[in-house]
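Sat 14:20. Reprocessing the chain from the morning session after the first attempt stalled halfway. Input below, unchanged.
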Amino acid sequence: MKNQQILAVAALVVASMATVQAQSVFTAWNFSAVQAAPITSLPATTGSGTATLIGFGYNSGTPSGDVTLTAGTAHSSFSEYLLRVRNASGGWSLGAPQYSQGLELDASTVGEQNIGFSFDWYTTTQGIRDLSVQYNLNTGNSSGWTAIGGTTLAGTYVATPNDYYGAASSSPTITLDLSSITGANNDPNFGIRLVSAFDSTGNTASYASATLVSGSTVPYNGTSGNWRFGNLDLTGSPVPEPSSLALVGIGIASLLAYRRNRQA
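Finished this time. Tokens:
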């Protein structure tokens, strides 16, 4: 083989080492029993990380979560233990800026690449309709939150009221591929946020209710409703060990040396 061919093959080998590793869950928040309020934060049930209710303290409110068993409406036989997030007095604060109220998940991705994220989302009838999924490569930077592509606007999902998102499915799960976000790989300060957004269909600077009235969007009332989350999973594949890459380099050097000797 010519030198260029050898290098091309080597590049393919290195690329395959980075992609063929099987995806697996490295950090997760999955619940198996009722937990009473008030919950403001929870450690990961798999791996190491923290889930924190954020923004519900706006205007002297008090964040209050709990874990409750929640059955679907379209599929009543389907149920999960979900983390319920809300203000202790009920609902969200109307005066809070969008993207400021919801749930934040902080977890290191050190040793992981090709990051993915999935979760189940249930909204009560009077909950806020629009949810934005955002990521941050440095959770210490409050300005670093960026929307992940969603279904209506960038990073925004529209609720199915009184049911799980994607209620037509018997196992409704939102799955996001973050592998194109290279900065998420091997990141000790990675974060995901699931936060309330303003009306995405009317494009108005106010929160919308999950339930339509006579087929039309109505403003959120600010006093009731909640979101519930389950099966919050971060997935990835192992970053190749430096020793493995070194072996590839030795192999390339050996092939090149062999070719030179054959030509001498």
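Confidence is low (pLDDT under 50) at residues 6-19, 243-253.
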